[in-house]
């Protein structure tokens, strides 16, 4: 055995001296220079593999069991039973392990809220009582619990109570913790802004119904103060990178009402284009809608939708995008439009969208009629889809269903199928046969058109 | 800065005799090695600028408010004494002879105090550290008064706290009240109690109070097994969880004391059992009164109890007795606790009896998931035919009935455990700084408990169940064929050479070789899936009855088997 080891080491040394595979940076290790290995201490008993951390105390074990019972009860909607175990589980708030004690308030809050939301004997007062207690258990949870409490109040239509709670939370200060909770505070303020916005729009509604000018003026003043409060808070939250759709929408509506369009444009561009913000399709939608309202040029609008197309190729605005591209004079734009409409139809949600299919049919027809110069556009699009579109869109089964449910959809699809797959494809044959039986004139023209083009230009045959 | 200020103070720490002082935020001195805070603050020199004096006065004001109401000076051993007394009283209320409290436990406790040099000796160990500090006092009081007021617990009832009964306390109190009072424990010696760890020293702990109680019960040969005792503790019949509540108001508990007296886990059978033997050895107790075959703890008698509780035929007792005789576990020498003779095995009476029954079941029914079912169907057919005669024991029927009731009881027990409340009304806090927040938290929990309590409807005022030695009852009157006590063991026995033997001639061993306890920590290793279902079920049944892990019973089964088949195993 010794000789074997020697052989091994020798072999290894030789390998190192021959600086072939190694680029010289290989470290040469000599056994004499190696420090002695320091073996770790063995556990007292060999059999016992020690799992990390301290063993759970009996207290923790029973509380875990208790938690499991609550969990079970919640899943089975046994609120009474859950409440019963909850009385025992509440003691985790007093756990002697700091780690458990820190985690406890949130768990208790979630479970408790769930029970109080569903328990038959519970009421909003009970919930308020509970929330107030939990808010004061741990400083760290104060604002989070406040916010969730507010959501709960809002769900129950208690807008004034919610507003009052938000105002209270806004005034909350706790030494150094105040700074640590900066983001949560911003959120609180933003939601307060949302309620300010709500009040503002209520006032606006009220004002429209008023006849008395003096009173209207008073209401308008009130409105304006709500606007100011909301605007300040919205502006603050929007500065932080994040997804703030509800706030942005309301803010835009407020600003547009007071005709501060520059500010709107800035806010929306920032929201859509600032790279620090997470990518958010809605940001582009809002910007597009604003530009549309403002009657901006097609060029700018197309630019916005181009990004949206990249983010969400199946967005409903894609039809509008396609339409705009079609109206353009540039060939390139036309081609892009074709791509857009093809992509849209890749998505299951669009499968039965008549308008999308008629768009595609129209475009194909245009290309075919205009001479076959751009036929390769269609062929290129079709190439990547020919493997799966027939099963996805043009099966015999679908033909039946489409014909039954929506004849015009079946008609548009049949046209597309006829061109792309040839006049012998199942879909086209079925639909045209049905159309023939129903003696509808338009089928004749369609048939003729398809026959004419599919025989000479059928891409599926030619490629 | 800190070093500069503490440099001048070269007194050693009261707790650990080391000179290594640091300053707390409040300017107090604390020992860096044992974290003992003393009543000495940095003195701000008067030559300092005016604002400093202002700071000093403010911090002084705060300090005064933060100081916990000191209460009495008390020692850790006094706390344990208090708890032991309550435990003994509870046991007495459960029907244990009053002798246990007034004579046996009291004597054991005195013995413990003496052996651990806490009292009844010329130089109590807790004082050593103090004496070196208060040198002058030693001169004036050369003969330290040791604890002399320790009459039996019942007498010391009233004056447990009075100074006269604790000469030692009062003498130290006088000498050191100004110096030694530490902030980090309510008791005088709490800090040092946890620190010192001399070889051969046995420190009292909460589980050990139960060990001590059980030693006393064993001395009197009371009909209580250790598993019974622990069950009573878990069911709240004997003070254990939050036992410090019995302390008089003035015995303040905080700081290190919490580590000693706060209970966060239930006592573990093996732990208490082991400590019991350690204690017996530490106290140098003589041989305990002999456990003869008329004693409750004798396996023959315990087997009757467990056979009844497990609803097994009385006839099995005959077989357990035969096994007991064969392997000599019924001998007085084997059963009696003798701390002097260290070679004796530490008998777990209850576990032994349960294991004996299991071994007998294995002998008769094999419990290999085949033989017992075969016999059961045979017995069932036979019972159906002859309804008048005494029924044969039908293992399958027994299994179904026990399983059903065991599942119900186990579920009930588990839920009860989960519902268990651990915290007492008066919360414990580590230091005065924590007091406010702990009290506030407690109040919140109480309020929320009330809220959810009212939502849970029938606010279960679960009456404390009366303690009973039996957990499962199979009353004979309840005749739905549920009680198996009278069933006979026909069909599995045959007569051979004028004696009954089992029809079944096979047997399987739980293990061929026992492990070395010193290396593995256990003699055997129980992995459920390795064993037949019937065997697992029987183990679990007794595990439930004794509230010990199944592995503990399994280990005992293996031991018995090895004794029983010693010769055959050797021959291999």
Automatic annotation (TrEMBL), chain A:
A Gene Ontology cellular-component term: RNA polymerase I transcription regulator complex
Superkingdom of this protein's organism: Eukaryota
GO process annotations (BP): transcription by RNA polymerase I
InterPro entries for this protein: SL1/TIF-IB_Component, TAF1A
Name of one Pfam family that matches: TAF1_subA
Protein name: TATA-box binding protein associated factor, RNA polymerase I subunit A
Organism encoding this protein: Pelodiscus sinensis
């Amino acid at each position: 055995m010794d000789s074997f080891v020697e052989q091994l080491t020798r072999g290894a040394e030789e390998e190192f001296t021959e600086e072939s595979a190694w680029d010289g940076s290989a470290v040469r290790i000599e056994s004499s220079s190696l420090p002695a290995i320091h073996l770790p201490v063995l556990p007292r008993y060999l059999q016992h593999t020690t799992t990390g951390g301290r063993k759970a105390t009996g207290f923790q074990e029973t509380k875990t069991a208790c938690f499991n019972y609550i969990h079970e009860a919640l899943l089975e909607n046994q609120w009474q039973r859950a409440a019963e175990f909850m009385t025992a589980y509440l003691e985790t708030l007093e756990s002697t392990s700091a780690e458990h004690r820190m985690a406890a308030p949130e768990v208790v809050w979630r479970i408790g809220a769930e029970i109080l939301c569903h328990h038959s004997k519970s009421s909003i007062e009970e919930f308020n009582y509970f929330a107030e207690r939990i808010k004061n258990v741990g400083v760290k949870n104060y604002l989070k619990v406040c916010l969730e409490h507010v959501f709960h109040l809002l769900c129950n239509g208690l807008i004034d109570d919610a507003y009052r709670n938000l105002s209270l939370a806004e005034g909350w200060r706790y030494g150094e913790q105040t700074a640590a909770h900066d983001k949560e505070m911003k959120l609180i303020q933003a939601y307060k802004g949302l309620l300010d916005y709500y009040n503002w729009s209520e006032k606006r509604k009220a004002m429209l119904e008023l006849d008395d000018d003096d009173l209207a003026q008073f209401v308008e003043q009130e409105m304006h103060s709500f606007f100011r409060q909301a605007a300040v808070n919205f502006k603050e939250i929007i500065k932080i990178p994040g997804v703030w759709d509800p706030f942005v929408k309301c803010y835009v509506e407020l600003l547009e009402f007071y005709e501060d369009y520059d500010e709107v444009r800035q806010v929306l561009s920032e929201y859509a284009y600032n790279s620090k913000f997470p990518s958010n399709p809605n940001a582009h939608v809002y910007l597009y809608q604003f530009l549309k309202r403002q009657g901006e040029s097609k060029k700018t609008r197309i630019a916005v939708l181009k990004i949206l197309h990249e983010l969400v190729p199946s967005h409903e605005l894609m039809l509008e995008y396609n339409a705009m591209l079609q109206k353009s004079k540039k060939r390139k734009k036309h081609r892009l439009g074709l791509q857009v409409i093809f992509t849209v139809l890749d998505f299951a949600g669009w499968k039965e969208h008549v308008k999308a299919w008629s768009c595609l049919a129209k475009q194909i027809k245009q290309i075919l009629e205009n001479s076959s110069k751009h036929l390769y556009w269609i062929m290129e699009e079709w190439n990547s889809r020919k493997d799966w579109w027939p099963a996805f869109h043009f099966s015999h089964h679908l033909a039946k269903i489409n014909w039954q449910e929506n004849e015009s959809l079946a008609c548009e699809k049949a046209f597309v199928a006829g061109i792309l797959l040839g006049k012998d494809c199942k879909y086209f044959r079925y639909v045209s046969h049905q159309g023939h039986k129903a003696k509808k004139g338009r089928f004749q023209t369609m048939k003729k058109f398809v026959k004419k083009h599919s025989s000479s230009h059928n891409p599926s045959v030619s490629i | 800065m800190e070093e500069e200020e503490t440099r001048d103070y070269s007194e050693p720490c009261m707790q650990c005799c080391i000179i290594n002082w640091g300053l707390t935020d409040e300017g107090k001195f604390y020992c860096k090695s044992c974290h003992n805070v003393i009543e000495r603050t940095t003195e701000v020199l008067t030559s300092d600028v005016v604002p400093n004096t202002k700071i000093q006065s403010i911090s002084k004001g705060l300090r005064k408010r933060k100081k916990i109401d000191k209460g009495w000076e008390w020692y850790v051993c006094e706390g344990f004494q208090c708890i032991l007394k309550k435990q003994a009283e509870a046991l007495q209320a459960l029907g244990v002879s009053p002798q246990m409290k007034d004579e046996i436990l009291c004597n054991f406790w005195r013995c413990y105090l003496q052996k651990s040099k806490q009292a009844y000796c010329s130089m109590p160990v807790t004082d050593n550290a103090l004496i070196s500090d208060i040198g002058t006092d030693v001169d004036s009081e050369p003969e330290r008064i040791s604890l002399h007021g320790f009459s039996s617990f019942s007498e010391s009832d009233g004056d447990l706290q009075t100074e006269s009964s604790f000469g030692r306390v009062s003498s130290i109190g006088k000498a050191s009240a100004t110096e030694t009072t530490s902030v980090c424990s309510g008791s005088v010696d709490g800090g040092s109690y946890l620190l010192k760890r001399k070889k051969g020293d046995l420190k009292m702990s909460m589980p050990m109070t139960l060990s001590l109680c059980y030693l006393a019960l064993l001395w009197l040969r009371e009909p209580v097994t250790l598993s019974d005792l622990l069950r009573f503790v878990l069911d709240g019949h004997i003070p254990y969880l939050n036992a410090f509540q019995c302390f008089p108001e003035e015995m303040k508990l905080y700081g290190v004391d919490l580590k000693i007296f706060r209970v966060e886990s239930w006592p573990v059978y093996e732990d208490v059992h082991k400590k019991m033997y350690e204690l017996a050895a530490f106290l140098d107790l003589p041989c305990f009164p002999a456990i003869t075959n008329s004693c409750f703890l004798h396996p023959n008698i315990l087997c009757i109890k467990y056979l009844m509780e497990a609803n097994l035929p009385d006839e099995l007792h005959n077989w357990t007795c035969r096994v007991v005789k064969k392997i000599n576990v019924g001998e007085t020498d084997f059963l009696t606790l003798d701390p002097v003779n260290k070679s004796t095995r530490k008998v777990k009476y209850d576990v032994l009896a349960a294991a004996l029954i299991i071994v007998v079941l294995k002998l008769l029914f094999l419990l290999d998931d085949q033989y017992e079912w075969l016999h059961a169907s045979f017995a069932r057919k036979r019972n159906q035919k002859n309804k008048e005669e005494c029924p044969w024991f039908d293992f399958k029927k027994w299994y179904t009935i026990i399983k059903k009731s065991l599942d119900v009881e186990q579920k009930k027990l588990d839920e009860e455990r989960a519902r268990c409340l651990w915290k007492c009304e008066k919360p414990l806090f580590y230091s005065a700084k924590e007091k406010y927040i702990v009290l506030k938290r407690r109040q919140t929990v109480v309020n929320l408990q009330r809220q959810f309590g009212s939502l849970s409807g029938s606010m279960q005022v679960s009456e404390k169940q009366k303690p009973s030695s039996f957990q499962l009852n199979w009353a004979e009157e309840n005749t739905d064929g549920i009680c198996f006590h009278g069933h006979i063991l026909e069909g599995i026995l045959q007569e051979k050479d004028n004696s009954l033997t089992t029809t079944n001639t096979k047997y399987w061993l739980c293990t061929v070789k026992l492990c070395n306890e010193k290396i593995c920590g256990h003699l055997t290793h129980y992995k459920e899936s390795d064993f037949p279902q019937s065997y697992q079920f029987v183990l679990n049944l007794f595990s439930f009855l004794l509230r010990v892990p199944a592995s503990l019973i399994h280990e005992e089964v293996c031991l018995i088997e090895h004794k029983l088949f010693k010769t055959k195993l050797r021959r291999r």
